[in-house]
């Protein structure tokens, strides 16, 4: 009976273990810290205040064991032990190495594009899923949301809203749509052109490698560069369609655009509520196409993540839904989400820095750079100049530029691509996703 009672007492005094999930960054950091201190951390009330003191205590205990062993060995040989050697001194004579502080972490590994590029060339990766944020569009001159001073959220004072995100909040819009409509005049697609990164993703499609692209952006540049609609999931909606925000009755998108640009408020003909573009606001359900991820991600053999902060849910959690054996490549300005952990998961690759430069590096490895330049030239001339001029430019290009790289300075001046298309000097803002995002609907399971 006493043994059973003692066993129950031990179980009652054991501390509860918190569950560490892959999507919880703070908990994973705590787990890394605990692993780094596991050799010297106590769980009782007398626990050491830091890993450094615990390590020192462990070294001292080992040193005392070493002194005891020396005395016992000397006694067996009939010689007295050397006097005056304390446990601490014995530890230093034993050559114990100072322990690194628990906070020290190895640098972020780089060079991921080389490995992934070789795997693609070998035909090992054939079903690529791309997850993208607004960082892929900053090279086209589209401002981000959160950069201090220049981001969208830093320049909303004139709209007199209680907090920046309110401009994309469906409840606030229902009460007062005017701030969003004023902002929408600048957000409507048409003033910017796709850049090199967009055309790289289209090239993935043309090579038969793109399973699907999931984008957070509402700028429409993915469609504009020619990525087919069936290969594209606009998780946060777009300006291409419009509907009543209350009864969801469809409304002609061009009529809604004309009304908004003229300063009017379009209203539903059925319930008289306000009509808005089908951009997903905070508090709204995601589009049904988003739930294709339940079949796409299990099929993927490569997940490519670019230009995103992975802060807006549920989109951010998508990167954790591929199989554990599937390689993941992050092309970003900063390490984000699961790529901040040390060590990285087996099969995770990171290439940090300017996104356009990282993509160019990958295309050079693949041998696609010239093809992408030619694709940009051909597509953009047809989009930006009259058809007869485009045909003449194509003929001239075929005759005079065989094998030559397309220079941005020779792109049509009537199109903004010449200023933004291949230029990579703009910084990617990974915190600049279309912040009009919501929580996942309770409809289809993900």
Overview of this structure, please?
There is one protein chain. The protein is an alpha/beta fold and 446 residues long. The protein is built from 15 helices and nine strands. The protein has helices at residues 2-13, 25-36, 51-77, 87-93, 112-121, 170-175, 178-187, 196-206, 221-224, 253-261, 293-299, 355-366, 369-384, 387-400, 417-420, and strands spanning 128-132, 210-215, 232-234, 237-244, 250-251, 275-279, 302-306, 328-332, 348-352. Strand 4 (237-244) and strand 5 (250-251) form a beta hairpin. The radius of gyration is 30 Å and the shape is globular. 34% of the residues are buried.
Task: State the secondary-structure class.
Answer: alpha/beta
Query: How many beta-strand segments?
Result: 9
Give the percentage of residues in beta strands.
5-15%
**What is the helix/strand order?**
HHHHHEHHHEHEEEHEHEEEHHHH
Mean pLDDT: 73
Helix coverage percent: 25-40%
Given as residue ranges, the uncertain stretches (5+ residues, pLDDT < 50) are 10-68, 80-98, 100-109, 400-414, 416-446
Shape, per Cα inertia axes: globular
Largest sheet strand order: 3-2-1-7-8-9
**What is the C-alpha radius of gyration, as a whole number of Å?**
30 Å
Largest sheet: 6 strands, parallel
Report, as a whole number of angstroms, the end-to-end distance.
50 Å
What is the helix tally? Answer: 15
